[in-house]
Amino acid sequence: xxxxxxxxxxxxxxxxxxxCKDNNLRYIGLEHLDSSVNEIRRWGEVxxxxxxxxxxxxxxxxxxxxxxxxxxxxxxxxxxxxxxDILVLRPKLxxxxxxxxxxxxxxxxxxxxxxxxxxxxxxxTSWKDICKIxxxxxxxxxxxxKIAKILSTVDDVIxxxxxxxxxxxxxxxxxxxxxxxxxxxxxxxxxxPSYADAPQLYKETALGWVPKEWDVVELRTCSxxxxxxxxxxxxxxYNTTLPVYLRITDIDEEGHFVAHNKMCxxxxxxKNYVLAEGEIVFARTGxxxxxxxxxxxxxxxxxxxxxLIKFSPNQTKLLxxxxxxxxxxxxxxxxxxxxxxxxxxxxxxxxxxGMLVIPxxxxxxxxxxxxxxxxxxxxxxxxxLTFKKYQQLKxxxxxxxxxxxxxxxxxxxxxxx
Length: 417
Description:
By secondary structure, the chain is α+β, with helices and mostly antiparallel strands. It folds into three domains: 3-137, DNA methylase specificity domains (Adenine-n6-DNA-methyltransferase TaqI, Chain A, domain 2, Alpha-Beta Complex); 142-197 and 362-403, Orthogonal Bundle (Helix Hairpins), CATH 1.10.287; 215-360, DNA methylase specificity domains (Adenine-n6-DNA-methyltransferase TaqI, Chain A, domain 2). It has helices at residues 97-104, 107-116, 127-130, 141-179, 320-326, 330-340, 350-354, 363-401; strands at residues 3-5, 10-12, 26-28, 44-45, 54-56, 61-64, 73-75, 80-82, 86-91, 134-136, 184-185, 190-191, 202-205, 208-211, 215-218, 227-229, 235-237, 244-246, 263-265, 280-283, 292-294, 302-304, 308-311, 357-360. The strands form nine sheets. The protein has a four-stranded antiparallel sheet with strand order 2-9-6-7, with helices on one face. Helix 4 (141-179) runs antiparallel to helix 8. It is globular.
């Protein structure tokens, strides 16, 4: 075991771009780095940045200085330019580049960087702050490479799983475009021919061309109870004796309940705001206005907060899963942008949500459409669970292998006679 300072493992590269940049290279900004991911999966054009950039090479580690809590550090496999908000860390002599990168991604480094970052809204770390972190580094380069190989093997599985997630999401996006404009012919169980191929099957509406059998209605006409605002009460620490509070921040980008940071609500009025099966809530203000959550009984009893608006569809006219999926479409998102951008603070109230115009097939066809989405959503969720499992495995391996808690077997280096 050998503990050294981080600055004995890597050093900051100081090469900067001049006015004339190589347009054949790629530009990496902080927005291109994904949290807790080892590879660069996205990039921009060199022309996107007119300022001076850092230059990095294959084998360097790109470490995000801004908001280190986001855990943005990646191993570079090509030469390029990057934002000066990114530290370019280069391995020292006799240090395996990939091993060095995993150390820079470890909780030891990121945890320290987060604790010592300066600033409140946009905390920032620096090389001066983190260079004296004590890290584990085997003396043998072979052992470093063995550890890096183990972790990169897990990363390969994570990357392939992410590719599968992206593929299924792209398929779902295409399905949404087709199923909410063409639907499914319940007599054949197949997608209707497009308007271009069979215009006689369609009619023109406020939403464009839709099947003749469909209605196009305002959302408010699909409920007897209308929209109801959530309870206006403060969140309190989680307690098994109190109901769990559902706030905007408890709903992820895909409309799922985030259960790992539960809060509760302590109010005698809570019982009047408990969600029931089939009810959906809409975020009415803030940066995530328009976000929706369809109550799932597996999430347990939930009381919805004041920045959420509850809608209870009449299930004989509009199925909740159909509505929830429609709120994931580009058409819905564009509608939200238009309605929420009329003032300085983005927002859509209950009356305005009631004016949302939606395509409305007959219940039987809605059910067929739902079945298609349930199938593709299951594929996405299965891959996401696999992704999470391997991320947890990687975190455990990093905790063991990058601290020296667990040693690996490796072939000893041999001198050449």
